[in-house]
Design goal:
The protein is α/β, with parallel strands linked by helices. The chain folds into five domains: about 190 residues; about 100 residues, Beta-Lactamase (2-Layer Sandwich), CATH 3.30.450.20; about 70 residues, Helix Hairpins; about 160 residues, Heat Shock Protein 90; about 110 residues, 3-Layer(aba) Sandwich (Rossmann fold), CATH 3.40.50. It is about 55% helix and about 15% strand. It is built from 20 helices and 17 strands. A five-stranded antiparallel beta sheet has the order 2-1-5-4-3, with helices on both faces. It is rod-shaped. The protein starts with a helix and ends with a helix. Bound molecules: adenosine-5'-diphosphate and magnesium ion. Adenosine-5'-diphosphate binds next to helix 14 and helix 16.
C-alpha cells in the first residue's frame, strides 16, 4: 500500500470510528438537553422532547446503518451522506427550538455551536467538507431568522453571530492544524510500519543465516573433532612451556595413561633422561618457526619405553602461541630396522670371512697334502718327519679355525637329513656335562613329540655346545641354564619375531641363562667373528659367529634377548622338515685302499693337482693330470674307454666343474666323478661323491674306493 493510500484509509477508519462515537454522544446529549428545556420553557418541553426524541432516533438509526455498511465494506459516500443528514437534521431541530424561543434573541444558538464543533472536530475525512457542513449549519441558523421578522435585539443578535462565527473560525483553524499533524503522524506511522516490516524480514533472514551457520559450524566442529580423536598418530597440544593442554585418544593408547594424566602435566614427565635434556633446545627451534621432526623416547605407564617420531610446530590460536606435536610409534620399525641392519652386516662380514677362508683353505690343503706325501716317503729322516708332523698339526688347527669361519660364512659343506632335535640336545648335554660346574643347574623342557628338522645334526650339536659353553662362562657364580624346544607356527600377517622371517612351521630352540647378561653396546656385535669379551686364552670370538652361520645355513633365524645382570636368552627358529621321520645314515667303512684303475684328475691349482697325482700314483693308480678343464675334456674324449674315474675341482676359472662334468657325461653318461670343493657348491654338480677341502690322503682314497666299489656291485 502506498503512503497516500495508507493515510486516506487510516483517516477513513478513524472517521468511521469517531463518527460512531459522536452519533451516540450526540443522541444522548440531545435527550439530556431536554432538562434545559424543562427549566427554560416548561410549556414547550413536551413538544421539544418529541423533537429531541426524533433526532436522537435518527442518529441511532444512522449509527446502526453505519455498522451495517461497515460490514458490507467501508463507504466514503455513505459517510458523507450520513454525516450531512445527521448534521442538517440536528441543526434544523435546534433551529426550530431557536425560532420557538425568540429567534435572534435565543441563546439556543449555542446548540448549533456544539454541532459545528462536532462537525469540524470529528469528521476527519475532508477539511473542506467539514467546513462546508459548518457553513450549512450557520445558514440553517441565519436564513430563517432573517426571514422571520425584524431584528429587535440587535446587540444580542450581533453577539450571538460573533460567538457563532468565531467558534466556527477557531474550529476550522484548529482542525486544519490538527489535520496536518495527524497526516504527518500517520505518515510517520506508515514509515514506522514499513521499517518494522523490513526489520522483521531482516531479523527473519538473520535468524535463518545464524541457524545455517550454526549448523555448518557444528558439522565442521564434529569433523575436526573426529579427525583429532581418530587420527592414527597421537596428537598433543602444549603451551610454550611444554604443559599439555589437550591430547587425543591415540596418545593415551600409546602411553597407557588416561587423558586426565596428561592434561596439565609437562611433556618432560613422559620423556627419558636424554630427551629431557633436549627439551629447551627443541622448544626454542619450534618457537623460532621451525617445523621440527625428531625421534624421542617416552615412558609408558608400565615402565617400558617407546620410540616415537615426532613432528612438531608452533601455531597461533586466538592470539596464543600453541605447540602441536604429532607422535608416531616407531618402536617396532626401529627394532626391525636394526635387526635388518644387523643381518646385512653379518652377511657382508660373512662374505669377507668366507672369501679369505676359502683361499686359505686351498693353501692349507696344499700344506697338508705335501706334508702327507713327505711322511709317506719311508726314506725321510726321523727328525724331519717329526717337524713335518708338527707342520701338519699346525695346519690342521688352522684348518679347524678355517672350517669354523666357513661355518659362519655358510660356505661349509654338510650333509642334510631330517633328525630329532631333542635327541641331539640330550646327546650334547650328556657329552659336555662334565665341563659344566656343579653350581650350574641344567634344566631341559623338550616338547615331545617334536617335528623333525632338516639339516646336519653335527652342526646343530656345535650350535648347542657353543650356546651352553657361553652360558657357563656367563655364570661364574653359578645359576640356572634352561633349554627349551617347542613347535612354533608363524602365520601370515602375525607380528614377526624377526624382520626377514618367512611364515611357516618352525622348531623354536631357546637357551637361557641367569648370568651376567650382555650390555646394549655389545649386543649388536656378539655374532661378529673374533668379537669376544673374554681373556685371550679363553675366547676366540668365533663361537657365536659359527652358531649364526650354521643357523642361517639351515634357513633358520636366531635372536638374542639380554638384561645386564639378569641373564641372556638365545632363541633359534629352525624350519620343520617336510620329511617327517628322521633317518640315520650309516657311516662309511674305512678299509685298506689301492687299485689299478685309470683316473683323470683336474684342478687349476697345481699344488693340489700334484698332491692328488702323488698319492694316487703311490697306490698304483694310473693318473692323467691336468690343470686345464678344456684340455681335460679333450683328453677324456680321446681316452674315455680307458678312463675309470674323473676327479675334478668344482670351482675353476676357465670352465667350472659343473660344465666340465656335463661335457664329460655327454661323452659317457655312466662315468664316475668325484668333485672337490672348498664349500657346499658341490651339491649342484652331478657327482658320485664330493670331497671337502682340505682333505686327507686317506679320505681321498676311501672316497675313490667307495665310488669305484659302488660301480662294481
Ligand atoms: P667367545 O665365547 O669365544 O668369547 P662367542 O662368539 O661365543 O665368543 O661370544 C662372543 C661374546 O658374546 C662373548 O665374549 C660374550 O661377551 C658374549 N656372550 C655370548 N654368550 C653370552 C651369554 N650367554 N651371556 C653373556 N654374554 C655372552
Ligand atoms: Mg663362545
Amino acid at each position: 500500500m502506498k503512503r497516500e493510500e495508507y493515510i486516506k484509509t487510516r483517516l477513513l477508519d478513524l472517521s468511521c470510528y469517531w463518527y460512531d462515537i459522536i452519533l451516540i454522544l450526540a443522541a444522548v446529549l440531545f435527550l439530556l438537553f431536554g432538562i434545559l428545556d424543562y427549566f427554560v420553557s416548561p410549556e414547550k418541553f413536551s413538544m421539544f422532547f418529541v423533537l429531541r426524541l426524533s433526532v436522537a432516533g435518527l442518529l441511532l438509526c444512522l449509527f446502526l446503518l453505519n455498522k451495517l455498511f461497515r460490514k458490507l465494506g467501508k463507504s466514503k459516500f455513505f459517510l458523507y451522506a450520513s454525516s450531512s443528514l445527521a448534521t442538517i437534521a440536528s441543526a434544523i431541530a435546534i433551529e426550530i427550538m431557536i425560532l420557538a424561543l425568540g429567534g435572534h434573541k435565543s441563546f439556543y444558538y449555542a446548540g448549533l455551536n456544539l454541532i459545528v464543533i462536532c462537525v469540524l472536530g470529528f469528521f476527519l475525512i475532508n477539511l473542506a467538507f467539514s467546513a462546508i457542513l459548518g457553513m450549512s449549519v450557520y445558514l440553517v441558523y441565519i436564513i430563517p431568522i432573517l426571514f422571520s421578522g425584524p431584528i429587535t435585539d440587535r446587540a444580542t443578535f450581533i453577539a450571538n453571530n460573533f460567538f457563532f462565527l468565531s467558534t466556527m473560525l477557531l474550529a476550522i483553524v484548529w482542525r486544519s492544524l490538527s489535520q496536518k499533524t495527524l497526516i504527518k503522524n500517520l505518515g510517520l506511522q506508515y514509515d514506522l510500519d514499513r521499517e518494522r516490516e523490513h526489520l522483521a524480514l531482516y531479523s527473519n533472514q538473520l535468524e535463518n543465516l545464524v541457524e545455517e551457520r550454526t549448523r555448518e559450524l557444528n558439522k565442521s566442529e564434529l569433523m575436526y573433532r573426529s579427525l583429532f580423536e581418530h587420527a592414527n598418530d597421537g596428537i598433543m597440544i602444549m603451551d610454550t612451556g611444554g604443559t599439555i593442554l589437550n591430547v587425543n585418544n591415540k596418545i593415551c593408547e600409546l602411553h597407557g595413561f588416561d587423558r586426565d594424566s596428561f592434561i596439565g602435566a609437562n611433556l618432560t614427565v613422559f620423556e627419558t633422561e636424554e630427551d629431557k635434556a633436549l627439551f629447551h633446545e627443541r622448544m626454542q627451534q619450534i618457537l623460532d618457526g621451525e617445523s621440527l621432526l625428531y625421534e624421542t623416547r617416552h615412558y609408558k605407564k608400565n615402565g617400558e619405553k617407546i620410540t616415537l617420531e615426532v613432528s612438531s610446530r608452533a601455531l597461533e590460536v586466538d592470539g596464543n602461541i600453541l605447540v602441536q606435536a604429532f607422535h608416531r610409534d616407531i618402536t617396532e620399525k626401529k627394532r626391525l630396522q636394526s635387526q635388518l641392519l644387523h643381518s646385512q652386516k653379518m652377511d657382508s662380514v660373512g662374505q669377507l670371512a668366507g672369501g679369505i677362508a676359502h683361499d686359505f683353505n686351498n693353501i692349507l690343503a696344499s700344506i697338508l697334502g705335501f706334508a702327507e706325501i713327505i711322511l709317506l716317503d719311508e726314506e725321510v729322516e726321523e727328525g724331519v718327519g717329526r717337524r713335518i708332523k708338527q707342520i701338519e698339526g699346525a695346519a690342521r688347527k688352522a684348518a679347524q679355525l678355517v672350517s669354523k669361519l666357513l661355518s659362519f660364512a655358510r660356505r661349509a659343506d654338510f650333509d642334510t637329513y631330517p633328525f630329532n632335535i631333542n635327541m641331539v640336545i640330550t646327546d650334547t648335554v650328556d657329552m659336555i656335562s662334565r665341563l659344566i660346574p656343579r653350581n650350574i643347574r641344567i634344566r631341559k623342557a623338550l616338547m615331545e613329540p617334536i617335528p623333525a628338522v632338516k639339516g646336519d645334526p653335527n652342526q646343530i650339536e656345535q650350535v648347542i655346545m657353543n650356546l651352553i659353553l657361553n652360558a657357563r662362562d656367563a655364570m661364574p657364580e653359578g645359576g640356572e641354564l634352561l633349554i627349551l624346544t617347542a613347535p612354533f607356527e608363524l602365520e601370515k600377517g602375525a607380528p614377526l619375531p624377526l624382520p626377514e622371517m618367512a611364515p611357516g612351521s618352525y622348531i623354536r630352540l631357546s637357551v637361557s641363562d641367569t648370568g651376567v647378561g650382555i650390555s646394549e653396546k655389545h649386543l649388536s656385535r656378539i655374532f661378529e667373528p673374533f668379537f669376544t669379551t673374554k681373556a685371550k686364552a679363553k675366547g676366540t670370538g668365533l663361537g657365536l659367529a659359527m652358531v649364526y652361520g650354521i643357523v642361517k645355513a639351515h634357513k633358520g633365524y636366531i635372536t638374542v634377548n639380554s638384561r645386564p645382570g639378569k641373564g641372556t636368552t638365545f632363541e633359534i627358529y629352525l624350519p620343520v622338515s617336510d620329511v617327517s621321520s628322521p633317518v640315520r645314515i650309516t657311516p662309511v667303512v674305512e678299509s685298506e685302499i689301492g687299485g689299478h684303475a685309470t683316473i683323470l684328475a683336474i684342478d687349476d691349482e697345481m699344488d693340489i693337482l700334484q698332491i692328488i697325482e702323488e698319492i694316487l700314483s703311490r697306490k698304483g693308480f694310473q693318473v692323467l693330470a691336468t690343470e686345464d678343464p678344456l684340455r681335460a675334456l679333450a683328453m677324456y674324449r680321446e681316452k674315455h674307454a680307458s678312463i675309470d674315474l674323473v676327479i675334478t675341482d668344482i670351482l675353476m676359472p676357465a670352465m667350472n666343474g659343473a660344465q666340465l662334468v656335463d661335457g664329460i657325461r655327454t661323452i659317457n653318461p655312466l662315468v664316475k666323478v668325484i668333485g672337490i670343493t672348498g664349500f657346499s657348491a658341490g651339491d649342484q654338480v652331478r657327482c658320485d661323491a664330493v670331497l671337502k677341502k682340505p682333505f686327507t690322503g686317506s679320505k681321498l682314497l676311501s672316497t675313490i674306493h667307495e665310488v669305484l666299489g659302488a660301480g662294481r656291485n
